[in-house]
Amino acid sequence: MFFKRTLPLTICFVMGVLFAAQYFVPHPWSEDLLTLSQEWTIVVGAFAAFLGYYSIVRVHAIKVKRHIPGWGFSVVALASFAVMFVLGCLAQGASIDPASGKQTVFGWVYSNMMVPLQGTMFSILAFFIASAAFRAFRARTFEAALLLLAAVVVMFGRVPLGEYIWKCIFPGGPGGGGINMANITDWVMSFPNMAGQRGIAFGIVLGGLAMSLRIIFGIEKTYLGGGKE
Questions:
Q1: Alpha-carbon gap, residue 88 to 83, rounded angstroms
Q2: I want to staple 148 with a disulfide (CB 3.0 to 4.6 A). Which of 38, 61, 137, 192 is the partner?
Q3: Domain chopping of the chain, boundaries
Q4: Alpha-helical runs (H) found in 141-227
Q5: pTM of the entire predicted model
Q6: Is the pLDDT of residue 227 over 70?
Q7: Beta strands in the chain (DSSP E)
């Protein structure tokens, strides 16, 4: 129980209090401690990444071995992982050869295969976002109506098609008797939208602070593999 509970909680408390105090101590020893901890974080992160890679390979290998439905995608994933790993090692992780200045095979595969695949994935996500927006923008309540109004205003001011339609409805502009939708959109983004974002950011910071204190003082123990006590 000591090594599973007491020791980890003690280390967590000591390190949490130490690095919380380190932020307010401008002494060279304090700065050296921060630098050393950052170097150790990189080392621990490298081991964590290795465990993650091993877990991915193991999961997909089991799917291929047992012929679990969809195991063909696991074959593609393992082959892609192996190819990119070998090419990355040969190119030493560089997309451009420093000697010749030309693109390496690793960089070519990434630019001509990985980037288009990412673009395809995000373009498909746009349809899901549009579907979710359609469901969210139904003006059934006062708050939903405000959300719908703000979305229409921003769309007309930022989307080229919406801006064209607005100019057709209200021709002119500044000094021409028309309504400048771009100024209205900028006001919405700069004031109501920014105020909402800052409120959310404050909530996130306070939530993170509360969770940090719960972990430091041993109230939250889920990282040990068990529930709260």
A1: 8
A2: 137
A3: 7-68
A4: 142-158, 160-169, 181-190, 192-216
A5: 0.60
A6: no
A7: none
